[in-house]
């Protein structure tokens, strides 16, 4: 990996996770901590992050979405556990709308091969490809403008094609979640698509890793009380959880893949 590629990926990882440690970055890229310090110093000079004693934290940018590859790579262990827990909520023969993004893709991978006889509706080419060889799965891939960075389509017409589909479950990925500001994202077009999917679904499942909790991005998608279940690896002691609406069901997952549920 070139120096430029490594620094670009470091920038995206920090933007996604919010904070990283030197030792973790050195291990991920198989380089010395001194090399990572030089990388962070260069990125700080560009105003892309702020260094701290043992690592770096992100400079908050409400409109700059990290690359898909970096999001898929960041918090990968926790994301896998979150996806496994989300997959357990999907029942046989459901019609499911899968969002774009790395979390929804992880859920698709967790469901692949289970032979649940699902009907999958999605804008994500990655999700469609995951289910392509499942003989019991019917796939509807929605059209629109291709967002190359995400490998998904975005509706460009006043009437969204998704309005023609009624689904049992919407598996939503989200960029930011805050108990007061609600669900927020970077892209107005994607946010509009998420709102349409919420209207067309009987229930809404949202998975997010702890780094997204408390983050507020450019565009509001919805209030949290519109969500059926939140699945997260955030610690139950996180004070922000106390501010969630009482009606919201939270499913906690842990690094050892154990889990628990609580309502409100």
List the helices and strands and how they pair.
Layout: H1 3-17, E1 19-21, H2 22-29, H3 33-45, E2 49-52, E3 55-58, H4 68-73, H5 76-87, E4 95-98, H6 102-111, E5 119-122, H7 125-131, E6 138-141, E7 145-147, E8 152-154, E9 167-173, E10 176-178, E11 182-185, H8 188-200, E12 201-208, E13 219-222, E14 229-232, E15 249-253, E16 259-263
Parallel strand pairs: 4-5, 4-9, 5-6, 9-12, 12-14, 14-15
Antiparallel strand pairs: 1-3, 2-3, 7-8, 10-11, 11-13, 15-16
Helix pairs in contact: 2-3, 5-6, 6-7
Task: Please describe the structure with a list of short key phrases separated by commas or semicolons.
Rossmann fold, alpha/beta, eight-stranded mixed beta sheet, single chain, 264 residues, Arc Repressor Mutant, subunit A
- CATH topology of the largest domain, which one? Rossmann fold
Series of H and E elements: HEHHEEHHEHEHEEEEEEHEEEEE
- Strand segment count: 16
Helical stretch tally:
8
Structural class: alpha/beta
User: What percentage of amino acids are in beta strands?
Assistant: 25-35%
Mean pLDDT: 85
Largest sheet: 8 strands, mixed
Relative helix content: 25-40%
- Strand arrangement in the largest pleated sheet: 6-5-4-9-12-14-15-16
Structure explained in plain terms:
This protein is α/β, with parallel strands linked by helices and 264 residues long. It has two domains: 3-60, Arc Repressor Mutant, subunit A (Orthogonal Bundle); 70-263, 3-Layer(aba) Sandwich (Rossmann fold). Helices cover 32% and strands 26% of the residues. It has helices at residues 3-17, 22-29, 33-45, 68-73, 76-87, 102-111, 125-131, 188-200, and strands at residues 19-21, 49-52, 55-58, 95-98, 119-122, 138-141, 145-147, 152-154, 167-173, 176-178, 182-185, 201-208, 219-222, 229-232, 249-253, 259-263. The strands form four sheets. An eight-stranded mixed sheet has the order 6-5-4-9-12-14-15-16. A hairpin with a 2-residue loop joins strand 2 (49-52) and strand 3 (55-58). Helix 5 packs across helix 6 (102-111). The longest helix is centred in the first third of the chain and has 15 residues, at 3-17. The protein is globular. The protein starts with a helix and ends with a strand. The relative contact order is 0.12. The model has no long low-confidence stretch (mean pLDDT 85).
């Amino acid at each position: 990996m070139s120096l430029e590629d490594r620094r670009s990926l470091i920038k995206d990882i920090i933007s996604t996770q919010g904070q990283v440690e030197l030792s973790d970055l050195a291990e991920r890229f198989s380089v010395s901590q001194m090399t990572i310090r030089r990388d962070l110093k260069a990125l700080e000079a560009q105003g892309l992050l702020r260094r701290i004693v043992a690592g770096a934290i992100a400079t908050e940018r409400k409109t700059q979405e990290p690359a898909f590859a970096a999001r898929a790579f960041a918090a990968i262990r926790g994301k896998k556990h979150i996806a496994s827990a989300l997959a357990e909520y999907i029942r046989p023969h459901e019609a499911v709308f899968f969002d774009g993004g790395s979390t929804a893709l992880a859920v698709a991978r967790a469901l692949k091969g289970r032979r649940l006889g699902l009907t999958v509706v999605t804008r994500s080419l990655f999700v469609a490809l995951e289910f392509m060889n499942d003989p019991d799965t019917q796939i509807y891939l929605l059209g629109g403008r291709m967002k190359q960075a995400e490998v998904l389509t975005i509706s460009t017409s006043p009437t969204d094609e998704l309005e023609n589909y009624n689904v049992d479950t919407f598996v939503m990925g989200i960029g930011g979640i805050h108990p007061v500001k609600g669900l927020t994202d970077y892209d107005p077009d994607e946010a509009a698509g998420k709102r349409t999917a919420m209207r067309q679904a009987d229930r809404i499942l949202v998975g997010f890793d702890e780094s997204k909790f408390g983050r507020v991005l450019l565009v509001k998608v919805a209030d949290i009380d519109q969500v059926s279940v939140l699945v997260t690896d955030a610690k139950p002691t996180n004070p922000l959880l106390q501010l969630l609406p009482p009606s919201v069901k939270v499913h906690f997952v842990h690094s050892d893949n154990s889990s628990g549920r609580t309502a409100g």
